[in-house]
Description:
The structure holds three protein chains of three kinds. Chain A is an alpha+beta fold. Helix content of chain A is about 35%, strand content about 35%. The longest helix of chain A is centred in the N-terminal third of the chain and has 20 residues, at about 35-55. Chain C is α/β, with parallel strands linked by helices. Chain C has one domain: Transcription Regulator spoIIAA (2-Layer Sandwich). Chain C has helices at about 25-40, 55-70, 85-95, 105-125, and strands at about 5-10, 10-15, 45-50, 75-80, 100-105. In chain C, strands 1-2-3-4-5 form a five-stranded mixed sheet, sandwiched between helices. In chain C, strand 4, helix 3 (about 85-95) and strand 5 form a beta-alpha-beta unit. The interface of A and C includes residues 14, 18, 43, 50 and 94 of A.
Amino acid sequence: MAVLNDETLPLRSNEDVVRARQAARKYAIGLGFSLVEQTKIVTAASELARNTVIHGGGGTLLIESLNHDDRRGLRLKFEDQGPGIANIDQALRDGYTTGNGLGLGLGGSKRLANEFEIYSEPGKGTRIVFTRWKG
Amino acid sequence: MTEGSATAPTRTSEILRQNEPALLTEWLQQQLGAKAFRSGRLKESELREQALEFLSAFVRALQSGKAFDPESSAWSEVRDVLGHLSRSRATQGFTSGETATFVFSLKQPVFTRLRQELSRDPAALAEETWAISTLIDQLGLYTVDLYQKGREEVISRQQQELMELSTPVVKLWEGVLALPLIGTLDSSRTQVVMEYLLEQIVSTGASLAIIDITGVPTVDTLVAQHLLKTVAAARLMGADCIISGIRPQIAQTIVHLGVELGNVITKASLADAFAIALERSGMTITRLAPRA
Amino acid sequence: MERIPILKMGAYLLVTIQVDMHDQLALTLQDDLTDRIVKTRAKGVLIDISSLELVDSFMGRMLGNIAAMSHILDAETVVVGMRPAVAITLVELGLSLKGVKTALNVEKGMSLLEERVRRSVDGNGRFER
Lengths: 135, 292, 129
């Protein structure tokens, strides 16, 4: 599998979340994803970027466009050195939240992905990898 | 696909070149007698033309002395002829075997020629026969490959046309759309059609869409989920959907699969669904004059 | 500081949300709207999201909050113009936007608002404002 192109963005502020969305959109369009697929990708990017800023104390987003056996894909890696997630299963369950509101970010994002990995431990930060393959 | 025989049949090449017209006649005789040809799907003139085209290209390619290689330029003319042949035979409804026979049937007249010309040199006869036989086999197999690709293109095009034909969105009334689905629904087709329906809802400003599945023989979990997601999406947008035409078998499947319909309205017939649609729009149908 | 404009249309308030709204802007909108509803004694709020290319859980929360707060302030909220791709994604995301009424476009949204306002006055026998 090859990484065709990549870009790293900081995730420290609200504006960074907007920039992350825009970058994800740009890459998705470039890879030829359909409108619905683009929307799913950008929505997940928004959720996960916001999580990194608000819960992770800030971090980075690595966007990679992939090629595997002639299939194009987009990978988003969110990383932070924040407090980490104590109970990942619980966090993935809908309705769970530490802040206000619906707390659907994590579980919802997983549903929007083809591949989804979370690496997190209390005190060791969090890394989330979201991948979507074209068509 | 096997490639590159050890030796190119160089003496054969010369023999064939000198006897091309006679060879063509014998080869045609062979094919015209075959059962596949007699079914009438192919005109004799067409066969003649194809045979002539192939044979001359074949003989020319043999002159290059190069073994058959689908990539090499020496065989590009033969490749083109076979490509053309495979595709046209596929559309005419011939099987891959019948199509490949066009090539394989060339062996007989070629062997006959070789036996005549090389009768005094058995070693050479054996060697040349083996080499040309291998080469013709490769061409035959190559023809089958091309045929397969051609069939796949036809099928995919037919699928596309069928999908377009069978998923029209119809405006039943002001603000009421109907989507009569016909044929087997697979996951990807359902998704495409559902997205199309939602776009139509926006562009026509319809507040109600009736998805009619009378023409759908079976529904699996994935398709049922797509339908339900579409209804949910339409509701989020401010419209509503009714699913109609649910046959007893499909109703059974849905229950059996444990798919939760929730509060999605379902009606057995499109007519019932239409009646509800009218009611929702605050309308009713009245007779203009009493029946005599 | 940039803010999203709120237009007054008779007894209603109209908000058109543009693309790429960041979180702070959304929070400011919530505050501004609550303010304006009280000041203008608006009976309804129409939020036009036809320019929005995405609605995530934060946005969904914001719309839900606006609907809830307006309701307390005796105004109804209708969200209009959701794009199909957004609706499909929301369904996948699992966001149901409970408590938020939706309509296909501004025109239908207005009829919906007028109907609900009419019903609430007639039905509850409240004093006309």
